[in-house]
Each structure stands twice: as structure tokens, then as C-alpha cells.
């Protein structure tokens, strides 16, 4: 079945694209949730009007994310962890811990938007990636210290 996407759908396509999907996926998931239209000329015209509003909204969100990214350049997060011998941590620092510290500082970032390149299992200073928008990613310094100090 051919459908027209009303918004970006992961692993399927961008807004406005005409894609072929299985009938059940379109009828039971995409169309009821307002993510797609049945492919027709009337739907294409309707989508063109929606696309203008969507692009304006995306531009505003991107501008806000870039503004937020500028604030993140100077931001640092400190996480106190229990430490064993030779400075090794009991466990590791998780995106959930970083998101929790950021929320205490007044920045509401979802843990799914925080990427730790390699597991943090020792004391030190590390850089993690924070996704603020689909196209905007910034780096955040994470200080891991001993909680026994």
C-alpha cells in the first residue's frame, strides 16, 4: 500500500515522502495515529499546506536547540560514585545519572538523548554527547569523583 508520510518516521522516511508499506502497518498503526495519509492527489495538496507549518515549527525548535547548545558549552556535571581499589568504580556512570544531575541543575534532558561513547568505570573527566534536536548535538563534561571525600 502506498501512503504519504505526515511526519518523520524512523526507518521509513521524511515528511511528504510517498512510501510503500504493508497494508496492516498502514491501516493499524500509521494512519490511526495521524502519521500518514492514503496516497492520493487530494492528500498531496493537503500535505503541502501542512508542510509549510511543519518546516516553520522545525526551524523554531532547531533555533531553540542551538541556543541551548551554546549554554551547554560551559556546563559541567559532577557525579559522586563509590570507589574501590585503584580508582575503579563500583558499577558505571549511566545516562540516567547524568540526566538526573542535569534536571537538578534545571535542564530537562531525557536519558535517551545522552550518549556515552565508552563506559565510564573510573574517576576522571569524560565527555558525553547530548542530543538536543535531530540535527543539534553538543558535548558535556562529566566529572566523576569519589563520594567518600
Account of the protein in words:
This protein folds into 2 domains: 2-62, 3-Layer(aba) Sandwich (Ribosomal Protein L9, domain 1), CATH 3.40.5.10; 75-146, Ribosomal Protein L9, domain 2 (Roll). The termini are far apart. Strand 8 and strand 9 (137-146) form a beta hairpin. By secondary structure, the protein is α+β, with helices and mostly antiparallel strands. The chain is built from 3 helices and 9 strands. It is 34% helix and 30% strand. Strands 4-9-8-6 form a 4-stranded mixed β-sheet. The protein has a 3-stranded antiparallel β-sheet with strand order 2-1-3, with helices on one face. A two-stranded antiparallel ribbon has the order 5-7. It is elongated.
Question: What is the secondary structure topology, with strand pairs?
Answer:
Layout: E1 2-5, E2 18-20, H1 23-30, E3 36-38, H2 41-72, E4 76-81, E5 88-93, H3 95-104, E6 114-115, E7 120-122, E8 124-131, E9 137-146
Parallel strand pairs: 4-9
Antiparallel strand pairs: 1-2, 1-3, 5-7, 6-8, 8-9
Give me a quick take on this structure.
The protein has 149 residues and is α+β, with helices and mostly antiparallel strands. The chain has helices at 23-30, 41-72, 95-104; strands spanning 2-5, 18-20, 36-38, 76-81, 88-93, 114-115, 120-122, 124-131, 137-146.
The profile of the biggest β sheet is: 4 strands, mixed
Radius of gyration: 21 Å
Show unreliable segments: none
| CATH class value of the largest domain | Alpha Beta
* Topology pattern, helix = H, strand = E: EEHEHEEHEEEE
Mean pLDDT, to the nearest integer, reads 88
Q: How many beta strands in the DSSP annotation?
A: 9
Q: List the domain count as a whole number.
A: 2
The fourth-level CATH homologous superfamily of the largest domain is Ribosomal protein L9, C-terminal domain
Determine the fraction of residues in helical runs and give it as a percent range: 25-40%
CATH topology category name of the largest domain: Ribosomal Protein L9, domain 2
Kindly estimate the percentage of residues that lie in beta strands according to DSSP. Answer: 25-35%
Q: Walk across the major sheet and give the strand order.
A: 4-9-8-6
Overall SS class: alpha+beta
CATH A-level architecture of the largest domain: Roll
